[in-house]
């Protein structure tokens, strides 16, 4: 058993209409909002379930990113996987 605790580094949300269309915006919870369900998200996770990420999205300000919508991000990931 590891003495490490697994936590969430970053989480964003997006909204879609009834047809599944998004507005190209991503959202984060406001700093003053506490969401207990998200606090328990990693409960039961183990180190064996994780792999190191080279995700270019992590730790970059949104202003440095070129992904207008989640679909753009998915297209980027698919292209990277094809390389």
Structure report:
- By secondary structure, the chain is mainly α.
- The protein is built from 2 helices and no strands.
- The chain has helices at residues 36-39, 70-82.
- It is flat.
- The chain starts with 35 loop residues before the first helix and ends with a helix.
- The model has no long low-confidence stretch (mean pLDDT 76).
Enumerate the spans where pLDDT stays under 50 for 5 or more consecutive residues.
none
Rg on CA atoms, Å: 16 Å
Distance between the termini: 37 Å
Number of structural units classed as domains: 1
Q: Helix fraction?
A: 10-25%
Number of strands: 0
What overall form do the CA principal axes indicate?
flat
Query: Which sequence of SSEs, written as H and E, runs from N to C?
Result: HH
Main beta sheet: none
Question: Descriptors for this entry?
Answer:
83 residues, mainly alpha, 2 helices
Task: Outline the fold blueprint.
Layout lengths: L35 H4 L30 H13 L1
Question: How is this structure best summarized?
Answer:
The protein is mainly α and 83 residues long. It is built from two helices and no strands.
């Amino acid at each position: 058993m590891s003495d490490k605790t697994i936590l969430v580094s970053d989480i964003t949300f997006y909204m879609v209409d009834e047809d599944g269309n998004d507005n190209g915006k991503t959202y984060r919870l406001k700093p003053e909002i506490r969401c207990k369900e998200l606090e328990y998200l990693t409960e039961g996770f183990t180190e064996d379930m994780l792999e190191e990420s080279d995700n270019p999205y992590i730790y970059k300000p949104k202003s440095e990113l070129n992904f207008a919508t989640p679909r753009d991000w998915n297209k980027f990931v698919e292209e990277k996987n094809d390389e």
